[in-house]
Structures are given as structure tokens and as C-alpha cells.
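Annex B.
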Amino acid sequence: MADFKYYASDDLNNENYGSHEIEVSLEGESGLQEQLKRCTKNPGHTKFIPVDDFKMDHLPIKYQDEDVLQMIKSLSGLTVKLLTNAVSPARPDHYNNTRIPYPLSKYKGFINIASSGSGRVANVFKESDICKTATTVEHVWNVRVRTAAHVVFDEFEMDSVKGIVGYDSERSSTTILTGKRLRSEVCEDFSEIEFLTEDAALAGSLGGHLNSYYDSCFKIKEKFEGRAVPDKKLAVVVSHPHGAPKQVSVGEWIRMDESRSSSDFENAFIYGTSTCAGSSGGPVYIMGRMGWVAPYPHSGTHKEGNFSSVVSF
Ligand SMILES: [Zn+2]
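Peptidase S1 domain-containing protein: predicted C-alpha cells.
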């Protein structure tokens, strides 16, 4: 486990521009939309591209490549919105060994507060069979979603979580999943939720996105690994800023965050790619790191840039 250190934000009392990036509304889900309009971090959201509109021209020229584009499309297909309406009484008051308030700690025990983050499907597999009739068997699929621990902290919060799949635009038809199990690593700011579904078409679609994502990542590794150093710092975020439909943002990573990294195989990154409240937990593709395949959950923002959770490979 990495020795955890968190950064102070410019304004620890401002829930929308603090160290974390979950979106919070005391007025329920409808209040989230209002906060999109009031955004002060990225007014107008000009650096966020709706996933359905993302094309090659949105990539810097040096990263314009069919496999990079396909990787982003596949990662978009795996990204989900995570909406909760309860705050666990077990959230700590402060980050470990600091005086910095832990996200939502002042709302501990509330059960009518909407908070919105993002996550990424990391695995899909058949969990069990259900005998519907003597001759009909249906499968139960396990969909594992990774996010940041401060987005969905424990099973108390998981009981209220909605995993919203396919919210690509206001016109999209979405599927809502409910969580069954959760494990979290608070120091690494990482959690994994297990959703169960009997929707075979959904499981097949997500499995297809997973295969395509890994296939694209390995092709990118083959192409870019031997290229000149300046061409290896792409950092892509897919998330639901302010709980709105899914957006892609593109930039470059700045450096490995040494203060929260223990090795090349367990580390966190800092990047300039745009994020907003609601982006927490969304996947961050960091070119050239973690075997070129493992995206990092987005964790928060500070003076130097935006930063990820700690990921082990
Ligand atoms: Zn914003």
C-alpha cells in the first residue's frame, strides 16, 4: 500500500473546486444540472467533447492514429455514470494524517443528497445460471466497475448507487445497474463495485468494448513504444462532468506523482487534461504507463494539475 499523501486545494470549503471532483447537490438530481451552468473551473466546457462527436481531428497531430481513436471509442463504451443519494457514516473526517476534510465528510449519514461521479467497466463474466423453466436457463452476469473510493465509499453507499451505462447523450437509451458487492482501498482512493445483471446483450456489448480496448492498447504500444520520447505523453479522460452526458477530454500527462507512488507498478499520475466535478472515478488513459493498458481512476485536482488514484499493475 502506498504511503498516502493528499494535497490541499485552494479553497477547501468549496465542494466544487476542492481536492475531489464528485458533483454534489443538496437539491437532488435536478440540482446537478444547475451546477453544470455555474461551473467556474472550465466555464463553457470548451475542452470537453461529447463522445458521439469525438473524431481524429480532436487529437493532437502527433497522436492521430486509428488505434488511438479506437482506444478512446472503446474506453468511452466502458465508462459509466455513478449516482448515489447516501453518504456513509463511516467516511473519515479527514484524509489520513492531515487536517484536510475527506470528501463529503460534513454530510455523513445524509440519505437525500445527490452525488455524481464516473467509473469504468473493468471486467464482465458469467457469475451463475438461473433456471427459468425446466428447459430455459438464463445467465447472471457480473459487471465490475472501478472508480475512486471517495465516489462510492462502502457498501452503505453502494446500496443506493445507480450504475448508468450508455449515457452518451440526452437522447441515449441507458441501462441502470444496481450494486451487489464492493471492495475499496481508501489510501489508494480506489474502489471496485460488482453489479449483477441478466441482460445478456449488455454483457456482450461491454465485453466487446473490453476486448476492443485491450486490442487497441496493445497495437498502440507496438507503434509508439519505439518512437521519439516527446510522442508518448497522451492523457485522455472519459467522464460525466457535473453528471452530464459522457465527455472526452484530451491532454498530456505531466509526471508520475512520486509522493503517492511506490514503484513503476504501483503509482499515480498528474496530468493537464481537463476534468470537472463529476469526473472523479472516470478512466484516465496514460500513454506508456502500466503496461500501456491499465487506465487510472481520476481522483482530484490541485495547483499543478489533475491527479489520479494509485493503481497497481
Ligand atoms: Zn465544469
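The radius of gyration is 19 Å. The first strand starts at residue 23 and ends at 25. Further annotation is deferred to the next reporting cycle.
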